[in-house]
Amino acid sequence: MTQVPPVDPTHQPRPLERFTRTFGQTKVGTWIGREILAPIEPKVIKATRGKVVLVFGMPTLNMTTRGRKSGELRTVTLRYFTRGEDVVLIASSFGRDAHPAWYLKLCADPHAELFSRGKGGRYVAREAGPDERDELFALAVGLYGGYENYQAGTERRIPVMVLSPADEG
User: Fold this and answer.
1) 80: closest CA among 147, 2, 12, 31?
2) Each residue of 50-94: pLDDT tens digit?
3) Number of compact structural domains in the chain
4) What is the pTM of this model?
5) Per the domain annotation, does 123 fall within a domain?
6) CA quadruple 163, 27, 43, 156: dihedral positive or negative?
7) How far is residue 96's CA from residue 49's CA, in Å, rounded to a whole number?
């Protein structure tokens, strides 16, 4: 199995990456991400096999899960980082008070397919426990400070999901 490319959350961003991450934390940047980029980015990534992404400087993957009610496959683009073979996702939903649909889908069925930059595979998700969540969330904030703003803007505790490669057997 080919896994998604590794992403070190402690990597120091280059100037363009730093600009993108800073702009994404503004109200305008958040609105553009939520209302314009989020709906079309999965299609762009799929059509270009990951060669084109809409947000530069943020590690991006497509995750496909099964709908809780419809049973149909759904794909969403998310920012991620890795810890060993595991992929870490932050269920921030741009700081909204409701959990993102993809998080609820993973809670109902933890199986997912991840794809980034021409690589991917099948994974199984679990929610990080309290201590692990805090550690991983701090790493995520180092990658993108907007997560801290999102947490401050909602009363819910933003979940952290850890996806491990699925056994091929």
Assistant:
1) 147
2) 777 777 677 889 999 999 999 999 999 999 999 999 999 999 999
3) 1
4) 0.87
5) yes
6) positive
7) 30
